[in-house]
Specification:
Layout: H1 2-5, H2 9-22, E1 36-44, H3 55-73, E2 77-82, E3 86-94, H4 95-116, E4 129-132, H5 136-152, H6 167-185
Antiparallel strand pairs: 1-3, 1-4, 2-3
Protein name: Transposase IS200-like domain-containing protein
GO molecular function: sequence-specific DNA binding; transposase activity
Organism: Desulfosudis oleivorans (strain DSM 6200 / JCM 39069 / Hxd3)
Length: 197
């Protein structure tokens, strides 16, 4: 979204023409559907505003996202993190099932937060993106990326200090030594670079 704003009119026209040729939405990420896969689902608040900046909102949204997936859709999230302006969740699903549910979740939280903040009509979310996991290496690098995300964005110095993450469950189930092995074997390197441009 942000790279597009810095393009010339000619570059924008070329990008839109390519998207049209492929049948992609003009100004939204394409979503592939029809089959069950493991996906990294990511969504950011519009303009990356820190709308979920309070501990109460982070907790409330984490419970609505992860608890809702489990209770409403019978989906078990593989890994997740919620931060003040975006979230990531790794989940095995069919996008046709997940997409409308996420839309309802985003709409409901937007309405609630806009009412609480006395900002009716404010745009809270900028859609969501999905990345299908393609290999074991991709899976574990994504897992590491999700759990390291609060450090990447400067919210904490240690991932384990961020309470709104599945990392704590992984530490309990697998232990720190196993997670360090995964970290060393499946480094994130530049994973996610340019996603926010």
């Amino acid at each position: 979204m942000y790279t597009y704003r810095n393009m010339t009119l000619e570059e924008r026209t070329q990008i839109l023409a390519r998207r049209k040729e492929r049948g992609f939405p003009w100004h939204a990420p394409p979503h592939y559907s029809g089959e069950i896969n493991i996906y990294l689902i990511s969504a950011a608040c519009f303009e990356h505003y820190h709308i979920m900046a309070t501990p109460n909102r982070l907790t409330e949204f984490s419970e609505a996202l992860i608890g809702g997936m489990e209770s409403d859709l019978k989906l078990h999230s593989v890994a997740w993190v919620v931060q003040p302006n975006h979230y990531h969740v790794l989940v095995k699903t069919d996008l046709d099932t997940l997409r409308p549910w996420l839309g309802r979740l985003h709409n409901g939280k937007s309405t609630q937060w806009n009412r609480e903040d006395k900002m009716p009509g404010r745009k809270v979310w900028h859609r969501f993106t999905d990345r299908r996991i393609r290999s074991e290496r991709h899976f574990y690098a994504t897992l590491n990326y999700i759990h390291a995300n609060p450090v990447k964005h400067g919210y904490v110095e240690e991932s384990s200090d961020w309470p709104w993450s599945s990392l704590h469950d992984y530490l309990t189930v697998y232990g720190r030594d196993t997670l360090v092995q995964w970290w060393n074997r499946y480094p994130i390197k530049d994973y996610g670079t340019g996603w926010d441009d």
